[in-house]
Amino acid sequence: MTDLLQLLLAGVSVGAVYALVAMGFTVIFAVSEIINLTQGEFAALAGLIAISATAAGLPMPLALLIAIVTVVATALLIRLVIAPVKRMTTLLSIILTLGLSTALKAAMLLVWGPEGRGLDPLPGPNYVAWGVSVPSQYLWIIGVTAVVSVAVAWFYERTLTGKALRACAEQPTAARLVGISVGGATLLSFGIAGFLGAVAGVLASPVYFSAWDSGLALGLKGFVAATLGGLTSIRGAIAGGLVLGVLESLVAGYIDSGFRDAVAFVVLIVVLVARPDGIFRPHSVARV
């Protein structure tokens, strides 16, 4: 029983990171139907920037702020780079963002080298409950993800700006007629996605390390988690990330750790065959 609880805790922790990345995919796709394959690189870049900032002697809060702001600016720049494309299709967005993802990887490799590294853990004591070791970093990951998830859901469902973004997603022509800028909404969605990716990166770095290529696996798993919510549901993306993280942890613990990374792709195949609209997206809900 203790082993099961330990695996579940680890799964929820990594699943929370996947959920943040998945929400980044969702907030962009829901507005513009762009699949942004640089989402995983946002997390890797944030972790590496925060590590360099703390190594330079900056206090942890300032280092994290610099990392998040830099990644948000990078996300906005990516949107501006692809904005001139007039007829953006989902396939074309995949090709364009894949190229930009490769460019970001190359830049990170040149700046930070090939070695992976980890950010210093965020402050806090470790606990032991019912024989289960509870590292403070797990609590930070789960707690911050919960706060950010609630804030993002509230923003899209309760604020005027969030409702405008939903309007662009559901009725772009009508949104333009009432004066809502679809281009501005897409730019804002990229900024939010950059923020979510950066938070995922700085939270995960002390446990899972950051490297020039670490965003590849994280981005793919975040995408799988987002597909569980149909790529349009914030709540579905959160649920998908948690389920994927727990499944990975259980497979690694009870079967073989070598199969851990295969779980996401098996889940993706099952979802695409059985329910392409997403498992955690009820048919009756509106796109968010």
From TrEMBL:
Family indicated by similarity: Belongs to the binding-protein-dependent transport system permease family. LivHM subfamily.
InterPro entries attached to this UniProt entry: ABC_transp_permease, BCAA_transport_permease
Compartment list: Cell membrane
Gene Ontology MF, one: transmembrane transporter activity
Membrane topology per record: Multi-pass membrane protein
GO CC field: plasma membrane
One Pfam family of this chain: BPD_transp_2
Any single biological process term in GO: amino acid transport
Keyword Membrane: yes
Protein name per UniProt: Branched-chain amino acid ABC transporter permease
Membrane-spanning intervals of the chain: 6-30, 64-82, 89-112, 138-156, 177-203, 223-247, 259-275
Species of the source: Virgisporangium ochraceum
Keywords: Amino-acid transport, Cell membrane, Membrane, Transmembrane, Transmembrane helix, Transport
Keyword Cell membrane appears in the UniProt entry: yes
